[in-house]
Design goal:
This protein starts with a strand and ends with a helix. It is 36% helix and 22% strand. The chain contains 11 helices and 15 strands. Helix 3 crosses helix 6. It folds into 3 domains: 57 residues; 143 residues, 3-Layer(aba) Sandwich (Rossmann fold); 86 residues. The protein has 304 residues and is an alpha/beta fold.
Amino acid sequence: MYDGGVYRSEELFEMIEDVGGVVLQKNRSSQMLMVTMSIPGEDREAVSRLCTEIGGVVKDVPLAGTEIAVVGPTLGRHHMPHPICDIAEELRRYGSVTVVMGLARGRGKATSQISAVEKGIIEEYDAAVFVLGNFKSCVEKKAELLEGIRVPTVLVSGPMPEGVDDKCEAVISGVGRKASRMRTPPERAKLEEIADTLERVLRDKKRSLEEDPLFVHPAEVKQILESYEPIDMCLRPSPMVLHLDGLRVKIPYSEHRDYLENVEVFGRRLGEVADIFPSKIDDSSVIIRIKTRSQVADEDAARR
């Protein structure tokens, strides 16, 4: 990730293209610029040298190319404390795109619920971090909210709960509700522990994708779609967000389905090599799940 000003940033984009790299994400705020890129390892030194020359810094971001949901029981002030925002911000520092989400019926140990629609929304992301509360019995009861979610989940709470290991991929204690930001060294270390744990959890998912690679890399699909005018003119932050196995495109599915299904990717229709469906968040975006090479081969054989 390059973190610096916009001064001479065009030189950086030209170098990324020259070395065969890809811009994964670009965020500009006034005169400041953050660029998440993927470049060949042998060219890192040259790119870092240019970034220093134009007044920026380069750092490794192991969660680049992922979108992660940070989930609290509700959006109320009782359940949406500062640590949730701090966790989301820490994951952004590691390169991920994050969203903060509250459940509709998460209040109270006896009444907490999660709907099928909410589970479907969470499953659109690469992983989810559930931030629960300060009471052990309450956390153990609410851990049932994580059951049946088909993406990696990490449970974060104040006390260490018991009997929840089968409900999530990892449990991190020591982060409960508090009315102030996480600024002290021990608190910063806890945020880093959460990000490192999520990196380890997603590393297992990446390893499974390496065993049966995707037909096309999500970044290559992103490059092809960047020339599509509705995406280029989209005013929402990060109009295209990469996932480990696809991407989110922030345009309405109903209006652009035909184009997305028929766009050509390495001699194939995108609709043949990927599952394309609307987001469960009010048709506000399109989810593209790229099929693996073995899936495409099996479907081709079945058609023949």
